[in-house]
Amino acid sequence: MDTNIYTEKQKMLAGKAYLASDAELAKERLKARELVYEFNQLAPKFIKQRKELLKRLFGKTEKMFYIEPPFRCDYGYNIEIGDNFYANFNLVILDCAKVSIGNNVFIAPNVAIYTAGHPIHAHLRDQEYEWAQEITIGNSVWIGGNVVINPGVKIGSNVVIGSGSIVTRAIPDNVFAAGNPCRIIRQLTDADKDYYYKDFKLGE
């Protein structure tokens, strides 16, 4: 199919090379920045108001979610978060493609989720072409501080990503992964649950 029939936004959402300087995309980024600016400037006590702004900004939200300001994103409408979502300070999501996040996901400070990329060859990069690939994060995931998640990555459910990791490839379910590049350290099992029940005496 001839890519010339696509608008730059359609190219972006289809994972094709596109020009972010396009007027339609620039207008949408400005709209998102206005909402993000308002969100970040509200006093700490205005929890309900901040939540309403995120509902207007994001493509999908559930009942329970909380994001500590400051927060940054590109478009907002490509971000979908599940129930019981929490993100600490300085979350950055470059959502030029869809970012889908499941239920019970906790994100530590200074995490960066990047769907956006640029051509490696300077000839194309100098013409200001960009591309974007979707990122998916499953249910019951804990992402440690200063983690970077790169374009196209899929993180499974029941996963812990260690602090400072650079995630460049898919991470399966039920593992602890860490490092640069991020790799599987070990499987997570019921022994981990039993350990914490013993230490914290949960339920007593």
Automatic annotation (TrEMBL):
GO molecular-function terms, A-Z: galactoside O-acetyltransferase activity
**What CDD domains does its record include?**
LbH_MAT_GAT
Family matches, as Pfam families: Hexapep, Mac
List the keywords (alphabetical): Acyltransferase, Repeat, Transferase
The UniProt record lists the EC number as 2.3.1.-
What positions does the domain Maltose/galactoside acetyltransferase occupy?
9-63
**Top-tier EC class:** transferase
* SMART domains (UniProt xref): Mac (SM01266)
Acyltransferase as a keyword of this entry, yes or no, is yes
Give the family, as the similarity comment puts it: Belongs to the transferase hexapeptide repeat family.
Protein name as annotated: Acetyltransferase
Organism (species) = Pedobacter sp. KACC 23697
